[in-house]
UniProtKB/TrEMBL annotation:
It is a multi-pass membrane protein. The chain crosses the membrane at residues 51-71, 78-98, 104-122, 134-155, 183-200, 229-251, 263-291, 303-322. It comes from Streptomyces djakartensis. Belongs to the binding-protein-dependent transport system permease family. LivHM subfamily. Residues 1-25 form the signal peptide. This is Branched-chain amino acid ABC transporter permease. It comes from the Bacteria. Its main location: membrane. Keywords: Amino-acid transport, Cell inner membrane, Cell membrane, Membrane, Signal, Transmembrane, Transmembrane helix, Transport. It is found in: Cell membrane.
Length: 331
């Protein structure tokens, strides 16, 4: 009986090795997996794509903190709402069945209107009453739970994909590859980030946003309508979050808790780049995305977010204000 137990593994080993031995004897090449350099290049490409998507969603989060010093824990739900609203217009049987492009544009508009409505309906009255930041932060947690479960009821628990650009062939980039969908998403995300940078640097409303972020009281004394600037920031944040949600749902999958899963990485990108700095959020998010994907070369995929956060901790130990943040005196 003992010999019979040993015979089965031995026969299996022989059956696995004979084809390889015969292939070498006949001069045929045995297929090999990609080299480490090829896998590293592929991880870098995936990391840049992931990083720019995180950057789109985190810029608004950083601008909100810069203008009113509020940590918006419900920002991840804006990402989910943008993705699921586009899904409703694109795929759902109850929707109009639009193509993904107009559905995505409508989702951005809806996200901007939602951001403006939240500011006018919740945050402006709380600010007028002098509500403390800690209390407002707790309100953002409650708002996050409400919005997440509303999406759960309306959308359901089953992940799904958009109707277009689902299955595509890969474009070879040397040893690595990328699909036309992912390449388009990456380029569009970069263009959007450049557009946000141009908006902040070259427009009057952008100058006003930077002035309020730098010194709210001085900006108000200079004649800037702070409430209008804050409303604009909330609408911009909502629109960018919705667009990031569509992009993330396009390259990954649409689910009811996708924004909550991405929220930790958004916070990591904002803190790593420097609290309140839109450009810092872009740089920090790109670093987080690349580190998360590159870590899969050595560690399990389940730990990729953890290693991104470890890098965040290490950088903050050396530079507490973040990559592009400014050191400030306390007291």
């Amino acid at each position: 009986m003992r010999y019979q137990r040993l015979l089965v593994p031995a026969l299996a080993l022989i059956l696995l090795t004979v084809p390889a031995i015969s292939a070498r004897a006949q001069g045929e090449e045995v297929p090999r997996g990609p080299t480490f350099a090829a896998r590293a290049l592929q991880a870098l490409i995936d990391g840049i794509q992931f990083g720019v998507i995180i950057a789109i969603t985190s810029v608004g989060l950083s601008l909100i903190f810069g203008t009113i010093h509020l940590i918006n824990f419900a920002h991840g739900e804006f990402v989910t709402i943008g993705a699921t609203f586009a899904f409703f217009l694109n795929v759902s049987a109850a929707g109009p069945g639009w193509h993904l492009v107009p559905a995505a544009l409508a989702a951005v508009v809806f996200g901007a209107l939602l951001g403006g409505a939240v500011d006018r309906g919740i945050w402006r009255p709380l600010r007028a009453r002098g509500t403390g930041l800690i209390n407002m932060f707790i309100v953002t947690i409650g708002l996050s739970l409400v919005l997440r479960h509303v999406v759960l009821v309306l959308y359901g628990t089953r992940p799904a994909s958009y109707a277009q650009y689902d299955i595509q062939s890969t474009i070879d980039l040397g040893p690595a590859g990328i699909t036309p969908r992912d390449l388009t998403v990456t380029l569009l995300a970069v263009l959007v980030l450049l557009g946000v940078a141009a908006l902040l640097q070259r427009t009057r409303i952008g100058t006003a946003v930077r002035a309020v972020s730098a010194n709210r009281d001085l900006a108000e004394a200079s004649g800037i309508d702070v409430q209008r600037v804050v409303l604009f920031v909330w609408m911009l944040a909502g629109g960018l979050a919705a667009l990031g949600g569509v992009f993330f749902g396009l390259v990954e999958i649409v689910s009811w808790d996708m924004g909550f899963k991405l929220l930790l990485l958004m916070f990591a990108g904002v803190i790593l780049g420097g609290l309140g700095s839109a450009y810092g959020a872009m740089v920090g998010s790109l670093v987080i995305g690349v580190v998360a994907q590159m870590s899969t070369l050595w560690f399990p995929v389940d730990l990729q977010y953890a290693w991104a956060l470890i890098v965040l901790i290490l950088v903050l130990l050396v530079r507490p204000q973040g990559i592009l943040g400014r050191a400030e005196r306390v007291g």
